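Please, structure for the following, as tokens.
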Amino acid sequence: MALRWLFRAMDKATLADKRYSFLFEPGPPDEVVSIDCETTGLDRNRDEIISISAIKIRGDRILASQAFNTVVRPRCAIGPEAIKIHGLREADVANAGPIAEVLPELLRFIGGRPLMGYYIDFDIAMLDNHVAEFIGVQLPNPRIEVSRIYYERKYGDAPPGTQIDLTFAKILKDMKLPLFNQHDAFADALMTAMIYVSLMDLKERGVRISRPRHKGVGDFHGG
């Protein structure tokens, strides 16, 4: 904890644009931001963001109607394999603003709130490539990995050798939540927000997701 505080203090001191010092201030205590990005490919060093969605969660309320949602014109070509995944083509982002125009509004939207997502390290890494260019430091926001919360609720007390499934579809199925158009940034951010709210409710009530001995959807049990 002390080391993390030191790194944050060093980053704040080296912040190139002091107008963004609010990123280092804690956000509202009951708010997190579900965030998702679609990209030109999966190479964190060469590929770029082409769409971003961020949705605030306040307590157990998902503020979807106030979401940040935009497409971005990248500086590199969109890979054909990426197009097959998210369906965004060069023509779809040709009239969008570059990331430098998008970041100020995004950073004001998220503030110092924790950022939450499904395998969020990739999304943050892609954002950090641009944020570091823009303000001189990477995002200081705490991050929450929703699959880690799901793992704890379902597999935290599992015996060795238990088969573990952390796929997005499986998590939604276990939580009895709908599967929307996956690999659309807004839909993914919304589904992840729904998972987070549901998991936090289970956690607060001390309820675990059961692991059925037969094939089928698990139910919930205390513990």
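DSSP finds eight helices and eight strands in the chain. The domain at 2-217 is CATH 3.30.420.10 (Nucleotidyltransferase; domain 5).
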